[in-house]
Fold:
Amino acid sequence: MRQITVRALGFAVALLIAATLSVRAQSYKVDPAQTRIAFEIGAKDYPLTQGVFRRFTSRLAIDLDRPQRSSVRFTIAAASLDTRAPALDDYVRGPAFLNTDRHPDIHFVSTSVEKLDDHTVRVRGNLTLLGVTRPESVTVRVQRDPDRSFGLRAEFHLQRSRFGMTAGLPLISDHVRIIVATRAGET
Structure:
């Protein structure tokens, strides 16, 4: 009888551990109408160039109690670049910069999420641009709304030469400011 009780207790503990490990972060859907993926880059004796990417896909999983279970995945259609200057867009899409024929997508996949305070997390992950993958760290401001949706905003600088994008250096800045603002709701 005692042997059965010990086995039953061991089985119950194993089930509890399995249940705890299988808890997953809640999936959220990014609202494309409330999302802006923008960039800014400077050049010597030329005004700041600003633009956005119009097409993307994303997957967010958020666990506020255990941020380390959260994850982020973005894929941006590089050809969806829009600076509101068609000739410039075509040039940036070309081989000197984004080379969208050979590298149609830009990918970011998180490797860790760390809570910094009640409204800020640090997302570390791998960014793939021009077929080159490099680690990046992004600080994200998080605003939780009563309807269980989130507002998310991240700003960071990308060093384009790390990905082999060296055209125009040093006249065109090596640092590109990236701004991502979005709203996400439960799926």
